[in-house]
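User: tokens in, sequence out, please.
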């Protein structure tokens, strides 16, 4: 039996919380970029991130990085990215990411873009994604 308590447009209606969202700044000649965030599913049922909506790029896919024959390759996550119940899934460089293909504008660090995360339970979660420099090596920085 399907639940009927859906359809509330307010932010309170979803048990899905998105944190630490950002888009990687790519050079102007690169027409693709990637978005990252941590997605927490506070509900009692698994959900899947099945799509992301934005006018920022012509096409958006949910990708993963996988080692294939010793090479790091990325590919679309078939059927959507599962966020297990009461669990947080991290989208980050080298792992899952929102692939922005065919950017419609030049990225700049001053920008913030609105992306809507679409889940298979019908939830649509809008989130602001600021454009940032890749900070994945930040923790390894040191001074001599
Ligand atoms: Cu990708």
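Assistant: Sequence out:
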């Amino acid at each position: 039996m399907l639940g009927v308590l859906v359809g509330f447009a307010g932010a309170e209606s979803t048990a899905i919380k998105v944190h630490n969202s950002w888009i990687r700044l790519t050079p102007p000649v690169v027409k693709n970029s990637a978005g990252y965030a941590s997605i927490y599913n506070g509900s009692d049922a698994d959900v899947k991130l099945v799509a992301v909506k934005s006018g920022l790029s012509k096409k958006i896919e949910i990708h993963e990085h996988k080692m294939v024959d010793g090479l790091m390759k990325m590919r679309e996550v078939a059927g959507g990215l599962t966020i297990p119940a009461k669990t947080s899934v991290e989208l980050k460089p080298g792992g899952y990411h929102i692939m922005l293909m065919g950017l419609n504008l030049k990225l700049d660090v001053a920008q913030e873009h609105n992306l809507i995360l679409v889940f298979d339970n019908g939830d649509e979660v809008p989130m602001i994604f600021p454009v940032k420099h890749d900070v994945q090596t930040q923790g390894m920085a040191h001074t001599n």
